[in-house]
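Before a computer can learn anything about folding, someone has to put a protein's shape into writing. The three-dimensional part falls to structure tokens, numbers that each stand for a local backbone shape. The protein below has been through that process, and both of its lines are reproduced in full.
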Amino acid sequence: MLRRANAQDAQAILELLQQIFTDMELEIMQKYPQQTSNLLEETFSQPMVYQNTIVIEKKQQVVGALVSYPAALEKEINSYCQKLAPKYGLPLNLGLFAGESWPDEWYVDSIAVAPAYQGQGLATKLIEALPRFFDVSLVGLNVDFQNQRALRLYQRLGFQIVGTTKIGSHQYHHMQKKYVSQ
């Protein structure tokens, strides 16, 4: 079942996203893993985040998640994290969400599916559900240069490479897809 996430989904979503965070090799997460996890869990329990997240449930368990938001909200999310940083003993210059989105797009921050459910088309279902849940006309996302499987998936779904960006120590393709109003 596809649905919008709620505050109670925060922990399940973070567990799904953990592999992405590991693959990104972000210094802040390597230096302060528990503190960063606690900060992200509190952040994910905020309406500005969970209301822009879609989950897939199987057997009453969250097995897939797509975390997204309008680009204009990125600064607010980052600011919220910055304000929480001291509470968790983290430095003020987190830079967790800064500069990933492009102007005027609906930004897909993360897509994750539980290992037992991968290869079943759930990531595709999550991406294709965006226009059902949100008023999107331009969707953007970043895909690691090394993640050819994800790159092929996004291209198959109509995303095109429009630029590059660096997040942490990794290079990413920035991809976008335009949606026509129905």
About this structure: The first helix runs from residue 10 to 24. The beta strands are 2-4, 53-58, 61-70, 106-113, 138-144, 160-167, 170-178. Helices lie at 10-24, 27-31, 33-44, 47-50, 74-84, 122-133, 148-156. The two ends are 24 Å apart (CA to CA).
